[in-house]
Design goal:
Radius of gyration: 22 Å
CATH architecture: Alpha/alpha barrel
Number of domains: 1
Distance between the termini: 58 Å
Shape: globular
CATH topology: Glycosyltransferase
Helix content: 40-55%
Number of helices: 14
Strand order of the largest sheet: 5-6-7
Strand content: 5-15%
Largest sheet: 3 strands, antiparallel
CATH class: Mainly Alpha
């Protein structure tokens, strides 16, 4: 009788377990929900606080100042939206959270906030369209396959191409006829940050079959490789070219300590950008450059023990200089991908960055007044802007690093930004 009763209980238990299983119609992220790391769970919980305020204000967050959120969503006197290079990161973060949790609220939020970005797809006045549209609409198309999102990417890419000068071989970064940039005597400035916009162009060739996007991305990467880097593989921030013949006019900084210093986030942009270039081309010179930038960062004598860099590797008052958490988050995400191409050479350092970023020193506690996930980033010290503050792009790349490092099956390389063309 006991054996029969035990068998009945076992069958009931088995039946209950079967009903708990998710259906094939649910997102893949739900199917693997139980494998999420504690860090990702903590990120989601903290992001709920920021999402609540963003929905209440119907605005995209950028940073904080004096305990109040500074919104990337802004309007001019005519009520027209003002372009901000950071407006794609919060929708992108929402897409990542939807991907890992399967919670529709994150998808709904991503769609809501990226609607306000869409008009900028025709903006030919900025090089930051890759940042803005690949992080938002790129992830949207990757996760949904919605052709409307693909079309937005194509239009944004076409706008970006308008800034390419074949005599220089690069996409122009800033305009020089207005603002503080007009006071630098530049004619055709190209900043290392611009490497981050090439991912969009590579993808568009895969999506459309038009090789123009890829050719321009390669040209930009090659000219930058030739002119931006010093013998120690650190990068200048700004190279100014003669738009008539492509000759280098100046090697400057804008956000670093000095023209010959190594601005920390700039090194991270270069690392990430050349890793992406290798992903799409398999050209070894891009892999070698990414490897050399990584070595410059990891072996830098001014790098603190926890790996979170000061805002500039040559800042004059180290160790009494602000750290830049955003540079560390970008570096961590890039190194996880690069690690997959280099026989695990960078696994240890990448995970060290993630672990230290996840410590109480940099992670903002739940329930605190600050609603962002990470604190202690630097926007631009020379401009007196966003110094030792939370920044939305620090959160974005930190989450990307977490997702890449906790990919299904234990792989360190999660195709968090895979070829969009795989979606038909």
């Amino acid at each position: 009788m006991k054996k029969v009763l035990g068998l009945i209980i076992l069958l009931i238990w088995f039946g209950c377990e079967q009903t708990k299983k998710t259906t094939v119609d649910e997102p893949v992220s739900v199917l693997r929900d139980s494998t999420r790391t504690d860090k990702i769970v903590a990120f989601e919980k903290k992001s709920n606080e920021l999402l609540s305020l963003a929905l209440q204000e119907n605005k995209i967050p950028r940073t904080e100042e004096n305990g109040e959120i500074v919104w990337a969503t802004r309007y001019n006197e005519s009520g027209e939206p003002i372009f901000d290079w950071t407006i794609g990161f919060f929708p992108g973060t929402c897409w990542y959270l939807y991907e890992t949790t399967g919670d529709e609220k994150w998808k709904d939020a991503a769609i809501k906030f990226q609607q306000g970005i869409q008009p900028f797809k025709s903006n030919t006045e900025s090089h930051d369209l890759g940042f803005v549209f690949y992080c938002s609409f790129g992830n949207a198309f990757r996760l949904t396959g919605n052709d409307a999102y693909k079309q937005v990417l194509v239009e944004a890419g076409n706008s970006l191409l308008q800034r390419f000068n074949p005599k220089v071989g690069c996409i122009q970064s800033w305009n020089v006829d207005r603002g503080w940039q007009s006071k630098r005597d530049w004619k055709f400035p190209v900043i290392i940050d611009n490497m981050m916009n090439l991912e969009l162009l590579f993808e568009l060739t895969a999506l459309t079959g038009d090789s123009t996007y890829r050719e321009i991305a390669i040209s930009h990467a090659d000219v930058t490789l030739e002119n931006h880097f010093r013998t120690d593989n650190s990068s200048y921030h700004v190279i100014d070219y003669n738009p008539e013949n492509g000759e280098v006019r100046k090697r400057n900084t804008a956000q670093g300590y000095a023209h010959e210093s190594a601005w920390a986030r700039g090194q991270a942009w270069g690392l990430y950008g050349y890793t992406v270039c290798y992903r799409y081309t398999k050209d070894k010179k891009y892999l070698d450059q990414a490897h050399q930038i990584a070595n410059f960062i990891i072996n830098n004598p001014n790098l603190p023990d926890d790996g979170i860099p000061y805002w500039d590797y040559d800042a004059p008052n180290i160790p009494d200089e602000p750290r830049d958490v955003s540079a560390a988050a970008i570096t961590a995400s890039a190194l996880i991908e690069l690690n997959g191409y280099t026989d695990n050479q960078f696994k240890g350092f990448a995970h060290k960055l993630i672990d230290n970023l996840s410590s109480d020193k940099y992670l903002v506690p739940l329930g605190s007044k600050t609603k962002f996930v990470l604190n202690h980033s630097v926007g631009s010290i020379p401009h007196g802007a966003e110094i030792d503050k939370p920044l939305i792009y620090a959160d974005y790349y930190y989450l990307e690093a977490l997702l890449r490092s906790s990919s299904e099956g234990g792989s360190d390389l999660l195709a968090i930004s895979p070829n969009l063309s795989m979606i038909k």
